[in-house]
Design a protein that fits this description.
The complex is a heterotrimer.
Chain A: H1 26-37, H2 42-50, H3 54-60, H4 75-96, H5 100-123, H6 140-146, H7 160-176, H8 179-200, H9 204-228, H10 244-251, H11 255-261, H12 268-281, H13 285-300, H14 309-334, H15 339-346
Chain B: H1 9-71, H2 74-81, E1 87-97, E2 100-110, H3 123-204
Antiparallel strand pairs in B: 1-2
Helix pairs in contact in B: 1-3
Chain C: H1 4-40, H2 45-53, H3 57-72, H4 86-123, H5 128-157
Helix pairs in contact in C: 1-2, 1-3, 1-4, 2-4, 2-5, 3-4, 3-5, 4-5
The chains are: A mainly alpha, B mainly alpha, C mainly alpha.
């Protein structure tokens, strides 16, 4: 098998290539395509954002799968429904994906979230608890045993990324005694693991996706470091399309100079719009919206695939994004936030 | 008071001394009242904009936080905020304003308020936490000022009541008693004189 | 001993076999896409039907070519199959190849085009005939050309002994 071609930043204009068809996925792709049609349209989301109050926004959802029970005034109920939808989408994803490793790869997101929580609790000598997400590959009951040292032989075997993440996180914490180091370490392990897995699965699409994700995270990190004026060395994630030097350089520039700095990258618009909005409104809404938009655009380019795992992965991610958007709008409406804020975030 | 008063010259002298004392106290207390209300107005004036600012900041924090939470996955929110890095301690000292003990709060904060990594969290959370950090300063100042105002107000009320009691009850009553004793004494004097005159008449006759 | 008849039969067999395989693969691809769409939208059955069936034509073309060979060899007549020289047998075999391979390859790819057309029709039902079917038919054209070449060769190019 040929080595997976690594794309450089100059090899594409906006979105990296997504790979070819895989005809095992004909049925699955068709099903997902049909489900995509039933997703909330942009117009529907905008209508919700422009609704006058929470009830009106909730009424607009009544025809969709997010329909709230009548008189469901309690917001916890809304959260519950959204969580259920998310669980259902993940379930569908694992049913449709023929490649088990891809399903596992996306389940690791919950593992890493659990590990962040568990390592922090261990390091600050708090009780570990059992309130972990059950969406990962490691069941919540076993998390406690990751840290138990005694009897290595009866210890259940954990995936290597769990071991690596825990080791790196603990090491990073003891170097500086700083809790944030745990997160940085796990973030970095997670990013590298994703890339490694994508290469092993020989998926051009996944590799492109994770590299874009790393780039976008780095862009946000850069803007956040600038905004909070904090000095944190080595928080940028490696492996993206953009070299880290550019981000470090960006830290030293003013907001208005960031756009030109990223002019040669596909993220020019994100950085430019985001930095301007940040400078004028002191808010990350715009940059986050732009990042989401870029990622969605990349996912939408899978429409070119007639059969393959790409549309299914894209569906999972877009659906998760949709659930987040619905939650955002409903939260904002419930708490009477400015409509303009919502619009800034979603469109 | 009038019922069981000894209408003696001794008592009169004593009462006169008391009146002098009471009116001096009255003067002093009303001066204290004026000063207290001046202080109170000053503090109240400071409180109003401070309160508005704190409320706005807290509202902002709340709003941002809501947005951040809504756009993050619930697990990520939980992991991010589980263990805080910011340590916060509050010390209370007492200061003296017009003999009123008012608390003076001083705080010590250490560590950065942003306690999570960047990859899975929203930037809005940073903004929310930084706004919260700023709001804390003002919040503590506001708490201090409000407590001061409350204590001063209680003191002011008490002083005003004392002044009023002195002015409308104690002093008039004392004056009345004095006049009563004076009248009584004068009556006794006249009585005595007329008796003496009568005796003189009898002797002469 | 002449191998003529054997070669001619191999040709007829290949035409039916390869074109049939192609059609089967093509229909399965299109069919899987269609069932995927139908699992969520059963009301689209009518639109999907034509596109699923289209890759099936190649199998018929192969069958037609094979039938033509058999007809010319008097398979179904009373007097029986005539002797065929090796050269003639080879000619029949070669004449059968165009539809065999054109059918095989075009059916597979037509299946993919149909599959794409079905996905598009799921999103835009009004385009199903305008684009989905038309594009699939364009692939079909080359199978038809293969069939024509085979038929012309069989009918005019070969000097049948019967």
């Amino acid at each position: 098998m040929p080595e997976l071609a690594e794309q450089a930043i100059l090899d594409f204009y906006t979105y990296p290539p997504i790979g070819g068809d895989d005809w095992r996925y004909t049925f699955q792709t068709a099903q997902v395509r049909t489900l995509e049609i039933q997703m909330l349209s942009r117009a529907a989301l905008l209508d919700m954002a422009n609704a006058e109050n929470f009830e009106q926004a909730a009424d607009l959802l009544s025809g969709s799968e997010y329909a709230l029970p009548r008189g469901g005034k309690d917001f916890a109920e809304v959260e519950e429904i959204l969580q259920q939808r998310r669980a259902a989408v993940r379930e569908l994803f694992s049913d449709l994906m023929l490649d088990e490793p891809t399903v596992e790869l996306f389940r690791t997101r919950d593992d890493f979230a659990n590990l962040r929580l568990a390592v922090r609790r261990t390091m600050t000598e708090k009780p570990l608890g059992t309130d972990y997400s059950s969406g990962g590959n490691v069941p919540p009951e076993l998390i406690e045993q990751i840290f138990s040292e005694e009897d290595v032989f009866s210890k259940p075997v954990f995936p290597d990324y769990v071991q690596e993440a825990v080791e790196q996180a603990v090491l990073a914490y003891y170097q500086q005694k700083d809790i944030r180091r745990i997160d940085y370490a796990i973030d970095s392990v997670q990013a590298q693991y994703n890339l490694r897995q994508a290469r092993r699965l020989r998926s051009v699409f996944l590799l492109g996706f994770f590299r874009i994700q790393i780039d976008l995270t780095n862009i946000r990190t850069m803007l956040r470091l600038k905004f909070t004026e904090s000095e944190q060395p080595n928080v940028f994630l490696e492996g993206g399309f953009i070299e880290l030097e550019r981000f470090r350089h960006g830290l030293e520039l003013g907001y208005e100079a960031l756009g030109p700095l990223f002019f040669v990258t596909p993220y020019h618009r994100i950085v430019d719009t985001g930095a301007n909005y940040l400078a004028s409104n002191k808010s990350f809404l715009r940059v986050e919206q732009q990042c989401d938009e870029h990622l969605t655009g990349f996912l939408k380019s899978t429409v070119l695939i007639t059969a393959g795992p790409q549309p299914i992965i894209a569906f999972l991610l877009m659906k998760e994004n949709e659930i987040r958007t619905v939650r955002l709008i409903l939260t904002a409406k419930k708490n009477h936030l400015d409509t303009k804020l919502i619009l800034d975030r979603i469109s | 008071m009038l019922a069981n008063v000894n209408a003696t010259r001794m008592e009169l002298l004593r009462l006169r001394k008391r009146v002098a004392l009471a009116s001096r106290g009255h003067r002093l207390l009303s001066e204290k009242r004026d000063e207290l209300s001046r202080q109170l107005i000053r503090i109240a004036r400071e409180i109003q904009p401070l309160r508005k600012r704190v409320e706005a900041e807290l509202l902002e924090t709340c709003r941002r936080f809501m947005l951040a939470r809504a756009t993050m996955e619930p697990e990520a929110t939980k992991a991010a905020l589980e263990v805080p890095t910011k340590k916060f301690s509050l010390a209370v000292k007492f200061a003296n304003i017009m003999n009123v003990k008012v608390p003076h709060l001083s705080k010590e904060m250490e560590g950065e308020i942003i306690c999570y990594g960047f990859a899975t969290t929203s930037g809005e959370m940073d903004v929310a936490l930084l706004a919260l950090e700023r709001a804390f300063d003002n919040l503590i100042e506001l708490a201090e000022k409000e407590k001061q105002a409350r204590l001063l107000a209680v003191e002011l009320q008490m002083t005003r009541r004392r002044v009023n009691v002195l002015e409308h009850v104690v002093i008039p009553e004392l004056h009345e008693t004095i006049r009563f004793i004076y009248d009584k004494l004068a009556e006794a004097e006249r009585d005595n004189i007329s008796r003496l005159m009568k005796i003189t008449d009898i002797i002469r006759a | 001993m002449d191998y003529g008849l054997t070669l001619a039969l191999i040709g007829a067999g290949l035409a039916a076999l390869l074109a049939g395989i192609g059609s089967a693969i093509g229909i399965s691809t299109a069919g899987k896409s269609a069932t995927g769409v139908l699992s969520e939208k059963p009301e689209r059955y009518g639109q999907m039907f034509i596109m699923v069936v289209l890759p099936g034509t190649q199998g018929f073309y192969g069958f037609l070519a094979a039938f033509l060979v058999m007809l010319n060899l008097n398979f179904f007549a009373e007097e029986g199959v005539p002797e065929l020289s090796t050269t003639l047998g080879l000619q029949v075999l070669i004449a059968c190849l165009p539809i065999a391979f054109a059918g095989l390859v075009s059916a597979i790819f037509q299946g993919r085009v149909c599959s794409g057309g079905i996905l598009m029709a799921a999103k835009r039902p009004e385009m199903a005939f305008k684009a989905g079917v038309v594009y699939a038919v364009m692939v079909e054209v080359y199978a038809v050309l293969g069939l024509l070449v085979t038929m012309f060769m069989l009918m005019f190019g070969i000097d049948w002994p019967t």
